Amino acid sequence: MTLLTAGLMGCSGGKDGEKAEDQFQWKIDEFADIRILRYQIPDWDSLTLKQKELLYYLGEAALCGRDIMFDQNFKHNLAIRKTLEAIYNGYEGSREVEEWGKFMVYLKRVWFSNGIHHHYSTDKILPDISKEYFAELIGNTPQKFFPKELGDRNEILEKFTPIIFDPAIAAKRVNQQDGVDLITTSANNYYEGVTQKEVEKFYAKMAKPNDPTPISYGLNSKLVKENGVIKEKVWRVDGMYGEAIGRIVYWLEKAAGVAENEHQALIINTLIDYYRTGDLSLFDKYSILWLQDTVSQVDFVNGFIEDYGDPMGIKASWESLVNVKDLESTRRTTLLSENAQWFEDHSPISSEFKKKEVKGISAKVINATTLGGDCYPVTPIGINLPNADWIRKEHGSKSVTIENISYANDRASIGSGFLEEFAWDQAEVELHRKYSLLAGSLHTDLHECLGHGSGQLAPGVAGDELKQYGSPIEESRADLFALYFIMDPKMVELGIMPNLDAAKAEYNSYIRNGIMTQITRIELGKDVEQAHMRNRQLIARWCYEHGKKDNVIEKRIRDGKTYFVINDYDKLRTLFGELLKEIQRVKSTGDFEGAKDLIETYAVKIDYDLHKEVLERFAKLNIAPYAGFVNPKMIPQYDGDTIIDIKLEYPMDYTKQMMEYSENYSYLPIYN
Ligand code: ZN
After folding, report:
1. Measured in angstroms, how far is the CA atom of residue 545 from the centroid of ligand 1?
2. C-alpha span between 200 and 198 (Å, rounded)
3. 447 alpha carbon to ligand 1 midpoint, in Å?
4. Is 73:114 a contact under the CB 8 Å cutoff?
């Protein structure tokens, strides 16, 4: 137990560690609102050749699905990306002028977002170049550089100029505005020719009443209306996206051949069967096998998994994350898992919504080795899967905290002045410096391995009743669980935290972020839309309002700058508990109106004056709010046909990696 804490504290930098890191350049590019960072794979050389091979094959499978994500985001994304890349490859005019730089920023943003809509706000990105310059770029790029399917250059110009430049066309990828047709007003490519009503009817008919093991209907298909008939185009080897899925399967087969154990080979082969047939019951089978594997050191996510890109929460984006277990830090999450029942029993939610028996929650700390699809270049720092409620209830779930990504984020942020600007005093800054890495990792552990897995639905509740409010409510639930327990003496007792000061550091940064600093990512006058951001604002704002009479969180002004300062940590913890209880009730009973009321009251609107002030303070710091990562490059070393080693390189050039991926992993036709 002591080792655990010591190991963690070691992460925040012993002398030797700091020296080595100083030589590593974390940030390699910056443009628009984006920073590009690198991440390291620690202890690569201590892996066996077989493990390295497995990571390499799974990594290739992760890269092969990149174009799927582009196409899912918007039907013209691949055509536009390839047009821009043709210009990049072939433009014969000057590349020394300012406009060229602006064109490159647009191309880099399209790569970053896997399409022409902002990855976070989902608004269409408008390029900072004129239509005339776009015409000049196309005109001075020889025809041979453009894909044949797009026709001649005049056709390309005519077709894509409005799609790229007209703000009214395909304005938003995911529209969640209450009261409009969510399907027809969203630009994503999950539906075509159908209305929200038709989608609801189609899937309501499909679901069998009282099915104890319902498949995730619609998860892996596009829903279209052709000749008046509504039908699914399934994503599988001989279906839509088949060319890319076939390549994924090719690499998965190689991976199965070097699996660490038989169970892992079975997992991979079941996934292959699912990709061949598109049969969602096989995906459930794969998910169950996958969550049961807690021994393999190498692991991966690969599939149509998350539904954030669909306002209806039915269709899933393709993603992959290949990883290797961090043995030292995993001891910390194992301790939490082993005590899962204790946490469930002591949770402040109503007993009727508690799990009597918490099953199979496993958690581990991993280091990412390849990011793909919806996980690239923007990646989560924790994952809890599978998503199907019945599997979570019957079989549990698997949680991971992604240590090397958090670590890279933390290292890259040091010295930016961000913390000093928004923290009230030096004591708050120092508390953060001392504990932020540990507290942040612990929050993620609690959120992922206990929070999402806790609680249960009331009988008869299916879990999809909250519709567009489902994601932020679920994220709030997991966050509140983490916030409530991180301040529990149990954490010190288990030897996970040295003292409760680490929890105070987490409370400070959660409130600071939920009310103030996260809105640096949003344009003035706009609402909060992304599920995680909504959940954080909901929690911070709700606690601020409900703690007002006791002055739990105080709004203070100094030199015209606003700060939110916690006066009473214990009372704040009580408020977290109360909100957790209410949110669990909303989720467990499928109370749509309750969810809507909480989200619309606290999570969506931003105080205009505060927003303006925060943006001005942030602008002075000159920091891009979003970060994404380039992947390390794995280079197999051969002796004849045999791989004898795999070397790692940490690329320094974002554009080069994106162009390499576009050249080597483009398997899909431009229109699917
Ligand atoms: Zn979560």
Report:
1. 24
2. 5
3. 6
4. yes
* Amino acid at position 90, single letter: G
Q: From residue 64, give the alpha-carbon distance in Å to each of 267, 403, 653.
A: 19, 25, 20
pLDDT in tens, 418-434: 899 999 999 999 999 88
Cα-to-centroid distance, 469 and ligand 1 (Å):
14
The CA 384 to ligand 1 mean position distance, Å, reads: 7
Name residue, tokens 């390549």.
247
**Cβ–Cβ < 8 Å for 237, 275:** yes
451 CA → ligand 1 middle, Å: 8
> Residue written as tokens 């940064």?
509
Neighbours of 142 (CB within 10 A): 12
The full DSSP string for 299-357 is: EEEEEEEE-TTSTTS-S-EEEEEEEEE-HHHHHHHHHHHHTHHHHHHH-SS-GGGS-SS
Structure letter (DSSP) for residue 516: I
The CA 423 to ligand 1 mean position distance, Å, reads 26
Contact call for residues 153 and 143 (beta carbons, < 8 A)? yes
Cα–Cα distance for residue pair 496/623, rounded to 1 Å: 33
User: What ranges in 398-488 are assigned the alpha helix state H?
Assistant: 403-413, 418-422, 426-445, 470-486
pLDDT tens across 468-492, in order?
Answer: 899 899 999 999 999 999 999 999 9
Give 534 Cα–ligand 1 centroid separation in angstroms. Answer: 12
As a three-state string, the secondary structure of 202-264 is HHHHHCCCCCCCCCCCCCCEEEEEECCEEEEEEECCCCECHHHHHHHHHHHHHHHHCCCCHHH
pTM of this prediction?
0.77
Measured CA distances, 600 to 215, 274, 297, 543 (Å): 31, 39, 43, 15
What is the rounded distance in angstroms from the CA atom of residue 194 to the CA atom of residue 177?
A: 18
